Amino acid sequence: MSDTQPPMEWPNFADIPLEEAIPTSRPKGQALSRFVWWDGEIRRAEKQSVHYYANALHYGTAVFEGIRVYPTSRGPALFRVQDHMRRLLGSARLYGMSIPYGVAELVQGAVQVTRQNGINHAYIRPLAFFGYGPIDIKPKQACAVSVFIATRELGTFLGEKALRNGARVTISSWRKFHHSALPTMAKASGHYANSVLAAHEALDRGYDDAILLNQDGTVSSATGENVFFVRDGQLCTNDEASSIVPGITRDTILRLAQEAHVPISVKAFTREEMMRAEEIFLTGTAAEVTPVCEIDGVEFRTGKDTLGARLQRAYLATVTGKDARHHDWLTWL
Ligand SMILES: Cc1ncc(COP(=O)(O)O)c(C=O)c1O
Fold first, then answer.
1. Residue among 249, 253, 283, 315 whose CB has most ligand 1 atoms within 8 A, to mutate
2. pLDDT exceeds cutoff 60 at 3
3. For position 258, which CATH number holds?
4. Are both 164 and 143 inside the same structural domain?
5. Which of 123, 198, 326, 328 is the most buried (most CB within 10 A)?
6. Which residues have any ligand 1 atom within 6 Å of their CB?
7. Burial class of residue 155 in the structure, from the number of CB atoms within 10 Å of its CB (0-12 exposed, 13-18 middle, 19+ buried)
8. Where residue 100 sits, what CATH number does that domain have?
9. What is the position in ligand 1's atom list of the atom closest to the CA of 226?
10. Number of domains into which the chain is organized
11. Do residues 114 and 196 both lie within one domain?
12. Catalytic residues
């Protein structure tokens, strides 16, 4: 069993001292920016409004993305923005929403609004929604689609303590909706009611976040992050068959681990398999690579010798342009 095995010798990844992994100069608040890209042009953010009868407000019919901008030695850069815009268009397609822009135009919009707002450490939120129309549930028939790209400051998501020392997580009593009920891969606003219930439950129980099981009884994901665990020398995570949003951070971690020849297993896993892990971490654009120190009173390894800490360091080196092998993932302003 894993308890009796000696600690693994994990690869060192990017050549950066562990202490430097998490920069200290992150924004503390979530201040909104002055400008927003809205239907193809830059506008003053405070002048924009959404109709109170917008279909999206009533029925959750919006799709969105979350993209980060990181400071690099060559100035601010967006991380994997093309992949995010591709996923946005995929989510829209699943909801019958036609967006009159392609990936290149959306990327251009994101670059433009980030530059205009003069920020170098931010979270970018592209969102497309069905607007004003009749009170029915066929928005693709009669509701205009609007698209905006907003930006705001974002330091850490689950808090700096969680990023450094680990998050305390509970298993939610709410199940993740099955991919046969809603297209789980889509980042659609309505889907997040499920995450809100689980996140509120975590809050009420005194935890930082919650992990949801799916309708098959295996682990799905956390409220806004994918789940990885490490056991017996293997890095494990699940895939779309487990009703997850297949995260771009998840994909980045798998690529970095593959390149370092870490043994990987991608398949559905049960709660008991996860609870027997040596270490667990969560991945997401907002949460980055956040170690889990506890699930419902059971403790897991954290600290700089863990694979999670090494991958966190490799990830942060990648997104800030310190790892030249992955500059193709960065879009400089
Ligand atoms: C439910 C859910 N799972 C996983 C993720 C992670 O996706 P990504 O790494 O692309 O941000 C997110 C965040 O977007 C999410 O909301």
1. 249
2. no
3. 3.20.10.10
4. no
5. 198
6. 66, 187, 221, 224-226, 244-245, 247-250, 283-285
7. middle
8. 3.30.470.10
9. 4
10. 2
11. no
12. 187
* CA 313 to centroid of chain Cα atoms: 17
| Same-domain check for residues 312 and 171 | yes
Helices (H), 69-213: 81-94, 103-117, 139-142, 160-165, 192-205
HSE toward the beta carbon, residue 326, CA cutoff 13 A: 23
* Residue 172 contacts residue 202 (beta carbons within 8 Å): yes
Q: Are 75 and 332 in contact (CB under 8 A)?
A: yes
User: Is 137 part of a structural domain of the chain?
Assistant: yes
d(CA 10, CA 13) in angstroms, rounded, equals 9
Q: What is the pLDDT of residues 88-139, one digit of tens each?
A: 999 999 999 999 999 999 999 999 999 999 988 899 999 999 999 999 899 9
DSSP assignment, residue 260? T
CA 255/CA 259 separation, integer angstroms: 6
Q: Which atom of ligand 1 is nearest to the CA of 286?
A: 11
148/203 same-domain check: no
Residue 320's region, left for phi above 0, alpha for psi from -120 to 50, else beta, is alpha
Q: What is the pLDDT of residues 204-250, one digit of tens each?
A: 999 999 999 999 999 999 999 999 999 999 999 999 999 999 999 99
213: domain range?
Answer: 158-332
More confident residue, 314 or 120: 314
pLDDT for residue 38 is more than 50: yes
10 part of a folded domain: no
Q: What is the residue with the minimal CA distance to atom 13 of ligand 1?
A: 224
Ligand 1 atom at shortest distance from the alpha carbon of 221 = 3
pLDDT, tens digit, for every residue of 146-194? 999 999 988 888 888 888 899 999 999 999 999 999 999 999 999 999 9
Residues in Cβ contact with 96 at an 8 Å cutoff, skipping those fewer than 6 apart: 139, 140
Boundary of a domain, candidates 132, 153, 174: 153
Q: Same domain for 136 and 233?
A: no
